[in-house]
Amino acid sequence: MATEIQLGDDTNPDTDLVDRALNGEVFVIRGVYNRFQLFKTLITASLDAIGKSVGEEVARRAETDGFERIHEWVAPADIPAMTDAVYDSVKPLAPGFLTAFVQQAFPEAKTLYYEETPNVRFHIPYDLARAQKDSFKSFSKDHGEGKITAHGPHRDSWLDCPSNGINLWFAVGSVRKGNGLTIYEADYQGDFVYKDSGDIADGEKLHRPTTFDLEPGDCVMFHTDQVHGSELNRINETRFVISFRMSFGKPIFPNRHYHKYVNANMVGTPFGFMASVPAAMQASYVRTLPWRASEKLSPRPKNEIVAAPPEAIGIERDGKFFVPIEAAPVGAVRGVSAAYCVARISENEAIAVSRRCPHSGGDFANGWVHDGAIVCPWHNLPFDAETGRSPCKTLAQVRRVKCDIIGDEIVIDPVAKEAAVEAG
What we know:
The chain is α+β, with helices and mostly antiparallel strands. The chain has 2 domains: 3-297, Jelly Rolls (Sandwich); 315-413, 3-layer Sandwich (Rieske Iron-sulfur Protein). The chain has 11 helices and 20 strands. Strands 1, 2, 3, 4, 5, 7, 9 and 10 form an 8-stranded mixed sheet that branches. A 7-stranded antiparallel sheet has the order 11-12-20-19-15-14-13, with no helix packed on it. Strand 14 (340-346) and strand 15 form a beta hairpin. The longest helix has 18 residues, at 37-54. The protein starts with a strand and ends in an 11-residue tail after the last strand. 43% of the residues are buried.
């Protein structure tokens, strides 16, 4: 579980905080809003951009009533333009904000590099965003996943980010479990197959992630090589976050060297115009130069890996599936065929459902059971075991099929009638 740290008036976090994060510890830093005047400047710049892009009335209401309600005043179709405006407004503030934060939070740090462009993240409720699926997808092609769309589980270094980076994930408005960040802490040391897109490959099992309740100004700090992603926003609040990637020491790019990292020690000096040169003076920048040039001229298709054969436990006979009860422990979900999986809800209850999540095809057999729901591992989305429904009303329910515990076996019969609640 994440370690909480309070940033008080007279205290600083432990000086080994960075080393601990780079070794897999996750921190929630509370009280940043009250400690850093520059954070208020960040909010002011965001409100100014919102006012210019979608109207002063929206900015006023966001300031008085909270960013969490912004979806009530901004049409989903306007979210990309509003997000772009905030990008433009907060980017010039990044050097001053990060330098001040690091000096106070990590006083022992000597050399800081930071990604030149911070990440602006507006996630409105999925049921509203779904109607703008195509425009949101187009925005994500230019800005990356996770800004206005949910990002699947990934490590930043799988695509084009440093392996020695630190993520600072600042809640500008309140963030709640159900619309926030997922960090798969138990999988930090795991060795995973991933796709060219940077997402975890189909067939990779994950443990239940850590999620967060954050107040404005709270910060989650974690190593960029933690497996992390987005929850599909299933609550009636907008999530507004600004995050920064940085490294203490020259950033190391194991794959693509795409993002521009700036040496903070050179910013504001006569050599500030060369602040991005040190990070670029390494083999990874030269090696990936042809790729970056070709991407600008003609984006190449992703060479996605071939999916692993789906897990299939138990034996099929006469159209039924027979699974030893010990093969499906309480809380686990297991695949029984390409089409179905079985979830052990309790000692005396198991259910069988269609295997793929109706949102983006995540494999429930790689997920888990929590509070009587089957959870898709890709975006931490729960589906009620009784009804097959998720909190996102615009998503189809998962189909249940007949399933019984008989002696020491779980017997699944996809053909027989199932008494589960049907859509309607």
